[in-house]
């Protein structure tokens, strides 16, 4: 393994721009090349380019970019390379991805983020990826460069990305700081004693009784409406304040055969949920995925189809008027286009939102899609869609991000933040509408939920979080995604973690004895409803009990006047 000096010398000869996680497309795509030839070439996918590197003088020559990174943090770096040439047999070339840091006094040190050996042009595009931690002493520039094959070899380099690594533990502190900032406010308490009272005899209890942050689940009407499933219903009432009917409001469920409509499952459940104090999302009016469209609808076209859609939306919104707070008007509009195609109308979606908004201007309208936060293939497309809806002024309120994590994929707090940051550029509120992670081992699953929930709750654009079910007797993803098991809905490790977050760590309960806190003190509390209790000599002074609500962005001042009885 070559020493640091060897690499540094090479780095001096070379010359790139990556902003955290996103590739900046400038005229040169951020690349710098010194002492050899570089040329940007178009790749197979439109809009994507690669750098063609040729005529190097040394194995250590290679294109370079400057990285925007922070000392002490751990990053993941990835890029694509492809050797060019006409070799018919295997060759044994090596490609390194090297990251070089600048220390005080200009000293350089470097680390090999990844190396690939035995490469030949026959391998095509090869992914280089690895991790590095920026030394805490780093001052000045950090660079990455790609080098290694003999100078005569020409190669392509494409799309380097740098993201904070999911193994970088700072995400926890960072999300905690955001949570403290956006999900909490101050409760200032000022106690005035009556003459003769001692500070050590007075204790104030600040107890949150209800959280205002929306935290919910998808609910199965067949279970919920079944009187012998009271445990399911009770569990929902105990742990959640929002709900969404899993499939019972979808058109194919309500009207499988033309004219034979049945809203009773959905409406019974919605009334039940509301009587338990839960709020309800409506999901969904239209789902343009052909497999979920009834045969009779598929047989329609033109004005008949438009009319059927309009009737369905109007009747469903009429029936749920005042009962649901949200509607996912069109579900998964990014990749499913049956209605648009059938009607040959690219603006069918905008028209549908306009219609829904005119039927009930009070209900909040959402788009709702996947592969935008849990994975990122459609994040940019979703931003563009939100902007398109916003500009068309069709009454869009929010973006639903589904958040079904693929099997065994550990949620990456840095990617979640990066994707939410990008989506929030639309200036539209974000709701997590269908959360689940998948892991066989319940402790691993608990860790996955911990990463996901802290990252989501710890992002300012997120206004609510709903799970897509929780029980092993009924979960779309199977028991590997669940929080509770068996007829008694016993919490597993994932469930214990999740409800500890929402009912303990993210709820406020503090006691202050004046001899320790002073008679004027501050409690930083999570938003929601509260009770303040006053104890004097271990006895509650019920006459001094107060209730109040702590709202986002508004600190509260309370005074307690300790008169004698
Ligand atoms: C290829 O090169 C690497 C590094 O130089 C060496 O360790 C390895 O033995 C070589 N493999 C073959 C098949 O020549
Ligand atoms: C996170 O915060 C704790 C407590 O304030 C501190 O001890 C720890 O060093 C921090 N960790 C990181 C990775 O910043
Ligand atoms: C607490 O209340 C007393 C009496 O009303 C007042 O004089 C004092 O300034 C208050 N202290 C604080 C910190 O608000
Ligand atoms: C809890 O708070 C929510 C939101 O502020 C409110 O709508 C709901 O009625 C409250 N529930 C109870 C039981 O007080
Ligand atoms: C209700 O639940 C019970 C107990 O699980 C089950 O035996 C029964 O079939 C259910 N009834 C309906 C109508 O689904
Ligand atoms: C919906 O409600 C409006 C207002 O009450 C009514 O005019 C309309 O006919 C209803 N539409 C359907 C399809 O039920």
TrEMBL record:
Keywords from the UniProt entry: Carbohydrate metabolism, Hydrolase, Polysaccharide degradation, Repeat, Signal
List the GO biological process terms: polysaccharide catabolic process
Stored Pfam families: CBM_4_9, Glyco_hydro_10
What InterPro entries would the database entry show?
A: CenC_carb-bd (IPR003305), Galactose-bd-like_sf (IPR008979), GH (IPR017853), GH10 (IPR044846), GH10_dom (IPR001000)
Domain GH10 residue range list = 199-501
Signal peptide extent? 1-21
Query: Coiled coil where?
Result: none
Q: Keyword Hydrolase, does the record have it? A: yes
Q: Which GO terms describe its molecular function?
A: endo-1,4-beta-xylanase activity
Has the keyword Signal been applied to this entry? yes
Which family is this sequence assigned to?
A: Belongs to the glycosyl hydrolase 10 (cellulase F) family.
PANTHER family documented for this protein: ENDO-1,4-BETA-XYLANASE 1 (PTHR31490:SF1), GLYCOSYL HYDROLASE (PTHR31490)
Protein name, entry field: GH10 domain-containing protein
According to its UniProt entry, this protein's organism is Littorina saxatilis
């Amino acid at each position: 393994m070559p020493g640091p000096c060897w690499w540094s010398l090479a780095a001096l000869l070379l010359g790139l721009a990556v902003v955290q996680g996103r590739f900046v497309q400038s005229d040169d795509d951020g690349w710098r090349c010194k002492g050899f030839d570089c040329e940007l070439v178009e790749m197979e996918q439109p809009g994507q380019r690669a750098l063609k590197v040729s005529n190097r003088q040394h194995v250590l020559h290679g294109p370079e970019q400057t990285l925007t990174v922070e000392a002490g943090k751990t990053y993941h770096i990835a890029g694509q390379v492809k050797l060019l040439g006409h070799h018919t047999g295997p060759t044994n070339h090596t490609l390194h991805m090297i990251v070089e840091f600048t220390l005080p006094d200009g000293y350089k040190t470097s680390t090999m983020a990844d190396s690939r050996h035995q490469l030949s042009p026959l391998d095509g595009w090869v992914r280089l990826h690895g991790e590095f931690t920026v030394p805490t002493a780093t001052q000045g520039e950090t660079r990455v460069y790609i080098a290694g094959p003999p100078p005569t070899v020409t190669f392509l380099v494409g799309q380097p990305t740098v993201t904070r690594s999911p193994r970088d533990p700072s995400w926890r502190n960072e999300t905690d700081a955001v949570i403290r900032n956006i999900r909490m406010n101050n409760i200032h308490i000022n106690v005035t004693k009556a003459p003769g009272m001692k500070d050590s005899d007075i204790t104030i209890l600040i107890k949150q009784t209800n959280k205002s942050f929306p935290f919910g689940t998808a609910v199965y009407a067949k279970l919920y409406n079944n009187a012998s499933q009271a445990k399911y219903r009770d569990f929902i009432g105990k742990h959640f304040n929002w709900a969404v009917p899993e499939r019972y409001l979808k058109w194919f469920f309500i009207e499988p055969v033309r004219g034979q409509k049945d809203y009773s499952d959905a409406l019974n459940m919605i009334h039940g949920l509301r009587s338990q104090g839960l709020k309800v999302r409506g999901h969904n009016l239209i789902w343009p995925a052909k497999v979920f469209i009834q045969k009779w609808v598929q047989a329609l076209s033109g004005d008949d189809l438009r009319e059927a859609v309009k009737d369905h939306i109007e009747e469903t919104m009429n029936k749920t008027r005042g009962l649901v707070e949200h509607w996912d008007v069109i579900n998964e509009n990014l990749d499913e286009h049956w209605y648009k195609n059938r009607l040959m109308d690219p603006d069918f979606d905008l028209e549908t939102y306009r219609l829904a908004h005119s039927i009930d201007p009070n209900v909040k309208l959402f788009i709702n899609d996947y592969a935008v936060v849990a994975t990122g293939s459609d994040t940019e497309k979703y931003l563009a869609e939100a902007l398109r809806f916003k500009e068309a002024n069709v009454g869009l309120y929010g973006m639903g991000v589904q958040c079904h994590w693929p099997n065994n994929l550990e949620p990456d707090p840095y990617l979640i933040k990066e994707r939410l940051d990008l989506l929030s550029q639309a200036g539209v509120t974000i709701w997590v509408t269908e959360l689940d992670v998948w892991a066989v081992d319940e402790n691993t699953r608990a860790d996955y939920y911990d990463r996901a929930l802290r990252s989501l709750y710890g992002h300012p654009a997120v206004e609510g979080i709903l799970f897509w079910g929780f029980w092993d007797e009924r979960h779309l993803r199977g028991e590997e995604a669940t929080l509770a098991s068996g007829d008694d809905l016993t919490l597993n490790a994932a469930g214990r973690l999740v409800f500890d977050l929402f009912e303990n760590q993210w709820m406020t309960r503090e006691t202050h004895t004046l001899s320790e806190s002073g008679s004027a003190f501050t409690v930083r509390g999570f938003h929601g409803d509260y009770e303040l209790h006053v104890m004097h000599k271990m006895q509650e002074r019920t006459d001094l009990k107060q209730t109040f609500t702590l709202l986002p962005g508004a600190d509260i001042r309370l005074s307690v006047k300790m008169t004698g009885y």
